[in-house]
Design a protein that fits this description.
Order of helices and strands: HHEEHHHH
Number of helices: 6
Shape: elongated
Radius of gyration: 22 Å
Structural class: mainly alpha
Number of strands: 2
Strand order of the largest sheet: 1-2
Oligomer: single chain
Distance between the termini: 36 Å
């Protein structure tokens, strides 16, 4: 959310193991790379394709020498990376739900701007439940 852009992020309560934190950062990095690279490969595919292409009825240009074989290779890579991005996004959503409903930590609440305001209360409840077990 906006808190992430400002650099203010509430901590996850209880804190995750270090390997989960590293994996989360890796998945986030890979997601952003795929969000950038996948559409660029789609555009490159259309630029090298000899077929006509347009956006909103406006005909768009090609490179001076089109290459159908290269265009198909770009299309295959674009499609594969698009699928990887969808699988990664699905796994990300599933893990957020697992963190919320199974692990019962504040990961999902931290992602959602309206719920993140309630984090201190949630953290206090988590601390109280741990204290009662001892």
């Amino acid at each position: 959310g906006i808190a992430h852009w400002r650099g203010v992020r509430p901590p996850i309560v209880p804190p995750p193991p270090a390997w989960q934190d590293r994996l989360a950062h890796l998945v986030q990095y890979v997601s952003y790379v795929l969000l950038l690279v996948t559409p660029l490969l789609g555009v490159a595919n259309r630029l090298w394709s000899p077929d006509e292409w347009n956006v909103l009825g406006i005909s768009l240009p090609h490179v001076s020498v089109t290459d159908k074989v290269f265009s198909h290779q770009l299309e295959d890579i674009h499609g594969t990376l698009g699928n990887v991005l969808m699988y990664l996004a699905s796994a990300h959503a599933a893990m957020a739900l697992i963190h919320h409903f199974v692990l019962r930590d504040s990961t999902l609440r931290r992602m959602l701007p309206l719920w993140s305001r309630k984090l201190p209360r949630h953290a206090d409840l988590k601390g109280a439940s741990v204290a009662k077990k001892d």
